[in-house]
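Lab notebook, bench 4. Still working through the backlog of constructs that have no structural model yet. Next entry is a single chain of 330 residues. Request: give me the structure tokens for it.
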Amino acid sequence: MPTSRKGDGHPSPDAVSAVGLRKSYGDKVILDGIDLRIPAGTVFALLGPNGAGKTTAVKILSTLISADAGRIHVGGHDLAADPQAVRAAIGVTGQFSAVDGLITGEENMLLMADLHHLSKQEGRQVTAELLERFDLVEAAKKPASTYSGGMKRRLDIAMTLVGNPRIIFLDEPTTGLDPRSRHNMWGIIRALVTSGVTVFLTTQYLDEADELADRIAVLHDGKIVAEGTADELKRIVPGGHVRLRFTDPAAYQSAASVLSEVTRDDESLSLQILSNGSQRELRAVLDWLDSAGIEADELTVHTPDLDDVFFALTSSSRQAQADQPKETAR
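Model written out:
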């Protein structure tokens, strides 16, 4: 389950906010006026197919490239007016490792400490702490070129944390990792958020966003086509249903007669009712059964997963674009 502060009743200040963010390269529009708002201490996932603009958004928010338009604040700082303060507040781990394979893991860490102008003593202390935290002590003296993909990713994030950033941009951090390494990385991200760090995550793995993110935005053709929690997004597309299973054939028949618009499965004594899985709809089903004195042995809620949402949103967006009338050249 995602780590969040949703239950504390106190809204967090925004770690990242962007209004009207735009970026084009020639005639190609990459970001078409998107808005983002990410509360501090949460995980925000930006989903999208290759070329959707995810990496461009990260590069703009992390001061690597400039936007064509938009008001952007990161860590409470105006990005346009004070980019240096933004850089001091953030850490960035890109799709491709920043690790230097010719030197050891420890030397990579110490080099990063030098770049952050830490004293030699402080640099060694921070390096030792982070190598232990990321389970890299045994490999610390070995060339980074000998590390596995998962180890390089862990070292990459450890290097990012040398400057103690409160906001971290992870651009597709698990691309190319095996399932075990991906799950280890998820644990690292959860631990970061538990410590109060805000994580801006871009990914093509929908299960990753489902597992980690407090809020998810889907970016397609330069626009945010949907945003919400994983559960909210799953209710966008049809196909959700409630399944009631009975062991008593009489109760099954009675329920089938009481409930309207159900799909019957006489062999398994189960009924399927179209539903978006909301609390209101579930309560209505239970109220119908209670009023008739019928009790189901099992109730399960089935909702579309993020794969369904992603394909529905990007397909409909693509189709809508195709349906737009074409201008005739004059």
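Notes after review: Residues 14-229 form a domain with the Rossmann fold fold (CATH 3.40.50.300). Confidence is low (pLDDT under 50) at residues 1-11, 316-330. Flag for follow-up if needed.
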